[in-house]
Amino acid sequence: MENDRLDPWGETSVDNYQRLHAEFGIERMDSVLPRFKNPSLHMRRGIDFGQRDLGRILDAIDNNKPFAVMSGIKPSGIFHLGTKMTADDMIYFQSLSKKATVFYAIADVEAYNDNGLSLQDSSKIAVQNVADILALGLDPERAVVYKQSQEIRVMRLATVFSAGVTNNMLRAIYGERQVGLYLSALIQAGDILMPQLPEFGGPKPVVVPVGADQDPHIRLSRDLANSFQKDFGFIPPSSIYHKLIKSLDGATKMSKRSSTSTFYLNEDPASAARKVMSGFTGGRPTVEEQRRIGGEADKCPIYDLYLFHFAMEDEYAKRVYDECYGGVRTCGDCKKELATLVKRYLEEHQKKRESLMKDAEELLEKSRKTLDSMAR
Ligand code: SF4
Description:
The protein is α/β, with parallel strands linked by helices. It has a domain of 229 residues: Rossmann fold (3-Layer(aba) Sandwich). 51% of the residues lie in helices and 10% in strands. A seven-stranded mixed β-sheet has the order 1-2-7-6-3-4-5, with helices on both faces. Strand 3, helix 4 and strand 4 form a beta-alpha-beta unit. The mean pLDDT is 89. The site of iron/sulfur cluster (SF4) has 15 residues, from helix 14, helix 15 and helix 16.
């Protein structure tokens, strides 16, 4: 499929999410969705569009068995709305069972290889990222937060895994890339499989919530789990995939690298509101035409912001959609309404986040001490 490209480090373009099921073997949500008693906002709205082996996590929940929720987030910048989605999913899965432990990898090695960010700079941003995820609702009592560069178990696993992959395998999954990025991929696999080491209770189901663009890492980790099953007893990790939110400037993927495509959770609320007001829309060239034939919410980044983040009630999101297609809404008013929601959200989030900075430092320190004190 020429138009679909899943690249964790570059341009991801997904023309049609349905095709990813056939093309990459990502399973549909239908088979597992009815088993969730309280599906998340992302699940209810079809933002989570695919999964691999998610039934294994549901089995663990039903049988009150331990499982891990794992994701790595590059500390290459303050959380934006794309990273918030991964964080929201991690928090949701943590909330489903007292036996769920979150492993949050601060992907500083990847940030160095992909973004050229020094480990020192990563470290400063990481504390702020942790404060953000705490403000979003992470329970620190059941969370392990660590930096890839400091976690010897992850590095050791990456080294072991390097013996099980060939250049051709990596090229087939990621295309022709510099060795540093291949190394980051093996380190990511180490992150994903580390929760199954004996010191963390041994083999267990692990769910990795990610954007569609991260699927190559999941495929590699699952291949490696199978290849090293005899040595470690690994269970192939499960995953859940969310759609990529449209960029405010009209590009396919919201990127931390482009300040006009997104806004950040620490951004001046007035500046974020201005970005909303100047954002790309799915509107018609004239108000008269919009009234007559309606807008195109499905193509609109402003609607994505309502749907993915700011319309908390399903009914409200549906109303925006219907009013858009019905020609009841004009883009100017629609943006103004959203800008007010965004400003209010950021003001509240930033207050919460500020009050949690110390907790973030403590969580990092506590996790480091716990990991250091465990047998390796
Ligand atoms: S009315 Fe709102 S949802 Fe519809 S196209 Fe305009 S900005 Fe987008």
